[in-house]
Amino acid sequence: MSRDDDCVLILAVVRRIPRGRVATYGQVAAQAGFPKRPRLAGYALSHLPTGHDLPWHRVINAQGRPSFDPEGPAYRQQLQRLADEGVPNVDGRIDLARYRWQPQSSAPVLD
DNA sequence: AGGGTGACGGGCC
DNA sequence: GGGCCCGCCACCC
Questions:
Q1: Which uninterrupted H or E stretch holds A23?
Q2: How far is the CA of A22 from the C1' of B8 (A)?
Q3: In this predicted structure, what is the pLDDT of residue A55?
Q4: CATH value at residue A31
Q5: Residue A111 maps to a domain
Q6: Residue A8 has pLDDT above 90, yes or no
Q7: How far is the CA of A39 from the C1' of C9 (A)?
């Protein structure tokens, strides 16, 4: 019950992040059923097969930044992709309070 | 078997 | 705000 199985669950959550929104690693992991294990989300995303169609760029860290070397290309590419779909950043930081994905199914309101 | 390494995060100072 | 430390745990020597 590890590795591939867990990754599938993580990636399934990433796939649901809508355009124009972002989610943190911790958020994705928790939603996939792995609270307190943000690194699992990081692991899953770091081993994506080439040619995948997952919106990997919509996953950022809890500080609201891409978890890449700010000097490297991946960092800028992620920001670029987000900007292209309407998620702005100020100096590489995204306003999580405003753009965080809030799945409606996380806390069903019943009465 | 043991130590190091992450696309992390929270707590502290 | 920023930096450090530590918990976390799958993986890879």
A1: strand A23-24
A2: 16
A3: 98
A4: 1.10.10.10
A5: no
A6: yes
A7: 8
